[in-house]
Amino acid sequence: MSFPVDRLVFAPGDVDLSRSPLAGSLDAETYVLGAFNPGMTRLPNGNLLLMVRVAEALREPVAAGKVRAIRWEEGGYVLDAWPLELADTADPRKFLLHGHGWKIMALTSLSWLLPVELSPDGLEVVGVHYGRAVAPAGSYQCYGVEDARISRIGDRWLMTTCSVSPERHSTTLYSSDDALDWTFEGIVLDHQNKDMLIFEGLVGGEYWAQTRPLGDLYFAYPPGSPYHAGPSINLATSPDALHWKPNVHPGIRPHAGTAATARIGGGTPPIMAEIAGKRGWLTLWHGVEPKEIVGIYRTYWSLLDPDEPWTILATSHPPLIEANPGLTAPLADAMYVHDVVFTTGIADAGDHFVVASGEADLACRITHVRKDAFVPS
Predict the structure, then answer these.
(1) What is the mean pLDDT of the segment spanning 272-297?
(2) Which of 60, 116, 136, 242 fits a disulfide with 141 by CB distance 3.0 to 4.6 angstroms?
(3) What is the pLDDT of residue 193?
(4) Contact 209, 235 (CB under 8 A)
């Protein structure tokens, strides 16, 4: 196979909204704002599966002097409306509501998860399984289900998702025996945590996961530290994948020496791999350089010790994957953010990895990355 292999495989125009979970519920036209950030795994038949986040948005979010949002409630979906003068709509993905004394946000879209089956190399769509979509099913996710990450452990698949509601911004867990039919297992993290990634294998007989708790306050590292304060990739363990305990050792932390990783978060579930002659847990993660509203998202990698995952065996400061404007050029009219690649899935394919990413919060990108491209700094 020739390299590089890098293409968009699924985009908003590939979604049939007549088969959406929202179809027929709203007295308003919707469209696909993005079909992106796909969790990925290999199916028993050898094909790859993407769990695509479909962000379904109102064609006209502002009407009669009010800005509206979609919300699930028992029996269907409804529209909520707030006076436009109370809202900051600078970010096309969300709006902020003033006058509460703290940060209050609502979304311009509601997300659900669509299973898309790909060929073994990830480059062709084999089928789209609308009948197996994962959509809001409780008040704890009334604003949507987002950003799936899938891990296979033995003969069982585990999928973490971010569930959004006024009650909490939580991590929810689903399980499956075939990676197509998913069973809801409950809320597993009860605080704002955007990127929970379960290791694809046990460590010391326990489940391990990367987490990324968020907050509005971080304490400073001492002067001269190689790290700077901010969101970091932490670790947690569990006896059953349901009850999680934070690990005392820090995980991956933002580097003080580069603005490109001023904010970081998990990308792909850690998999066992050999990189540069060392065997360990390979994890791809994102670093964000501040720029305008959203920032510049790039993908980086680290190799973690097989028995002590808080120990980094190798990493690289240059990014592994960056946003590719050439891929999204045919979708220029639909673009609403730029400089964003958000990697969410990885599969071993022999001499290379198949890597799945969300490109520009818009479409699903598949990149083949040779194993010899992982060069430690």
Answers:
(1) 95
(2) 136
(3) 87
(4) yes
Euclidean distance between the first and final Cα of the chain, in Å? 27
- Residue 14 burial by Cβ neighbours in a 10 Å radius (0-12, 13-18, 19+): middle
Looking at residues 71-82, what average pLDDT do you find? 94
The C-alpha atoms of residue 231 and residue 215 are separated, in whole angstroms, by 8
User: Quick check: helix, strand or coil at residue 330?
Assistant: helix
Mean pLDDT of the chain: 95
Domains of the chain, CATH where assigned: 5-373 (2.115.10.20)
Q: Which residues are within 8 A (CB) of 366 and not within 5 positions of it... i.e. 6 or more apart? A: 5, 6, 7, 8, 9, 118, 122, 123, 354, 355, 356, 357
Among 185, 162, 239, which residue's Cα sits nearest to residue 207?
A: 239
Per-residue pLDDT reduced to its tens digit, 293-322: 899 999 999 999 999 999 999 999 999 999
pLDDT in tens, 242-275: 999 999 999 999 998 888 888 999 999 999 999 9
Tally the residues of the chain.
377
Question: What distance in Å separates the CA atoms of residue 80 and residue 287, rounded to the nearest whole number?
Answer: 34
Residues 6+ apart with CB under 8 A from 289: 259, 260, 261, 262, 295, 296, 298
3-state helix, strand, coil in the chain (%, to 5): 10, 50, 40
The pLDDT score that the predictor gives to residue 1 is 55
4 upstream amide cis, omega within 30 of 0: yes
Query: Which secondary-structure segment (H or E) carries 148?
Result: strand 144-153
